[in-house]
Task: inverse folding
């Protein structure tokens, strides 16, 4: 357990903070005008804010001078009013200008942060569409979702709240330091010592916070992945009575995330009181020394008061800066995970050819070599020619490579060697979307999205008319049950397609494929979820659909593919037998053994 936790921690703590910050700044550079306006507003706001202590000190010195010059109380009040109107006016104008400019800065920087987050979300969405299936095979859905949601939220929060605070803190500190050096270098030396101690403490606590935030992000990703896994396999969990085991596993990850979050929050909120306490020590030392200097006549009372306000102006921004820097650890950890996703290897570029040449469906595999991982080659040297309008059935043991053949044809995975061509044109020379538009595929797992039944059927041809949708539904033997639903073709499917059985869902996906009128048809166990009678109806519909088209049929029930023009027996990635049903039975090999094993009970 400790090793697993340590591995997760090492993976999610930022490995290159400098590079991640550089990339974030590069993205922010796309909004130079807004950033310039925000920085200018912050600069002027901090400058106006810096004037306030000076104006207050000026007023105090004026009051002291008036009180020493006049003995009569009425004269003192009159002289004080005359002496204070300039400082009071200056205080009011400074406060008003500082507040307005601060509002402008907050508004602009919030816009900058939102646009940055939006650009990252858009890039991630586009990236997910360009990633090969290999990536999704190797990463849990929950981990990917965590990067898209939790990690981006961390970046967004810091950009909208932390960045304005950090910019304001930097300018406030610079202006206050300059003014204090002008007022009294000796007193500033005391403040500087306090700042050095505060900075050292901040650096130490920030290091602890960075580790805590990195582990928190990792724990959140693991917990999200487990929850997604439990939700997706809810029926299987209940079927095998593993609710308690899954609950224990989730509770363990939940406890780990709780501890990681608690440590991160402790490191986060421990900084503020620590730095504030150290800042107050500097304030006390400055007040004591400044008081002695005032009694000695080397400095005025108003200057001491202004200096003490500048000490507070520095200590508070230093605390805010430390707080923001700590929060940045979470944002950097999240941003690095996002950039890691954006840097993943994408699908190979589309070819510049055209898929219009796909008309006959003449498919050729030449010396094809492929493996899901470099150290595990599944297909070593495959050669296959499928003539136009042929029905090719692919059978074999589970894991033998049946689905892999059609996945390679669809270019879901790239070949490690050899080539696949359709009607004489290499599939890598055509844009994927155009090529796939001419190939209809019905998967074993029926997938429907939330929408009407007609929208689901028209998913591959969204400009289809209602007449075309109904015709495809009738051909797929699902028109009858659709009309029995409350709103017919306008019935909305939600969740796990409530109100529609698994077999009916499969029929809808078949209708979807029929509507696209493809040149090549692929059926990957398309009738596995329907009953025997419905399967016979679908076979008749499929016979009509496959007429005049090249088709690939993956099947476990050999009774459904006896009329195939060519049957391929795939085992361990190789075609060990090929021929018609009668030829393979006469051969007496693997296919004959497989066929007889399905009917020996009968």
Result:
């Amino acid at each position: 357990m400790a090793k697993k936790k340590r591995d997760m921690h090492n993976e999610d703590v930022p490995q290159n903070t400098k590079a991640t910050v550089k990339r974030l700044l590069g993205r922010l550079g796309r909004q130079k005008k807004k950033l310039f306006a925000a920085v200018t507003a912050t600069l002027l706001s901090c400058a106006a804010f810096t004037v306030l202590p000076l104006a207050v000190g000026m007023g105090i010195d004026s009051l002291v001078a008036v009180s020493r010059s006049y003995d009569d109380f009425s004269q003192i009040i009159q002289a004080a009013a005359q002496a204070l109107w300039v400082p009071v006016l200056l205080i009011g104008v400074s406060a008003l200008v500082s507040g307005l400019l601060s509002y402008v800065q907050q508004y602009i920087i919030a816009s900058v942060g939102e646009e940055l987050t939006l650009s990252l979300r858009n890039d991630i969405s586009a990236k997910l569409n360009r990633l090969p299936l290999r990536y999704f095979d190797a990463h849990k859905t929950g981990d990917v979702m965590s990067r898209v949601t939790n990690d981006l939220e961390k970046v967004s929060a810091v950009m909208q709240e932390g960045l304005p605070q950090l910019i304001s803190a930097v300018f406030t500190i610079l202006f206050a330091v300059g003014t204090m050096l002008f007022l009294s270098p000796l007193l500033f030396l005391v403040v500087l010592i306090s700042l050095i101690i505060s900075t050292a403490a901040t650096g130490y606590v920030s290091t602890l916070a960075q580790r805590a935030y990195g582990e928190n992000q990792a724990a959140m990703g693991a917990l999200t992945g487990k929850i997604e896994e439990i939700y997706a396999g809810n029926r299987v969990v209940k079927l095998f009575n593993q609710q308690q085991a899954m609950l224990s596993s989730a509770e363990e990850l939940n406890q780990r995330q709780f501890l990681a979050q608690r440590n991160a929050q402790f490191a986060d909120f421990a900084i503020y009181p620590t730095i504030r306490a150290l800042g107050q020590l500097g304030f006390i030392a400055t007040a004591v020394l400044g008081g002695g200097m005032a009694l000695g006549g080397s400095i005025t009372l108003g200057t001491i008061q202004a200096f003490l306000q500048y000490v507070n102006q520095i200590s508070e921004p230093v605390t805010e800066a430390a707080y923001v820097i700590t929060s940045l650890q979470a944002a950097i950890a999240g941003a690095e995970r996002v950039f890691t996703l954006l840097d993943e290897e994408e699908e190979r570029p589309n070819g510049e050819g055209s898929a219009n040449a796909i008309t006959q469906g003449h498919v050729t595999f030449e010396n094809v070599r492929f493996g899901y991982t470099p150290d595990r080659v599944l297909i070593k040297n495959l050669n296959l020619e499928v003539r136009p309008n042929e029905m090719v059935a692919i059978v074999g043991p589970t894991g033998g490579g049946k689905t892999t053949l059609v996945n390679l044809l669809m270019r879901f995975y790239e070949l490690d060697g050899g080539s696949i061509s359709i009607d004489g044109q290499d599939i890598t020379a055509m844009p994927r979307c155009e090529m796939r538009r001419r190939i209809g595929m019905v998967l074993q797992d029926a997938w429907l999205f939330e929408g009407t039944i007609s929208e689901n059927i028209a998913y591959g041809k969204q400009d289809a008319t209602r007449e075309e949708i109904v015709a495809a539904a009738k051909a797929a033997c699902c028109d009858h049950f659709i009309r029995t639903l409350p709103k017919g073709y306008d019935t909305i499917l939600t969740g796990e397609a409530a109100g529609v059985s698994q077999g009916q869902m499969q029929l809808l996906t078949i209708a979807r494929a029929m509507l696209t009128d493809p040149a090549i048809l692929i059926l990957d166990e398309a009738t596995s979820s329907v009953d025997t009678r419905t399967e016979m109806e679908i076979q008749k519909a499929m016979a009509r659909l496959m007429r005049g088209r090249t088709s690939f049929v993956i099947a476990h029930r050999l009774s459904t593919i006896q009329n195939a023009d060519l049957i391929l027996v795939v085992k361990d990635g190789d075609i060990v037998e090929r021929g018609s049903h009668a030829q393979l039975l006469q051969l007496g090999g693997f296919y004959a053994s497989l066929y007889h094993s399905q009917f020996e009970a009968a």
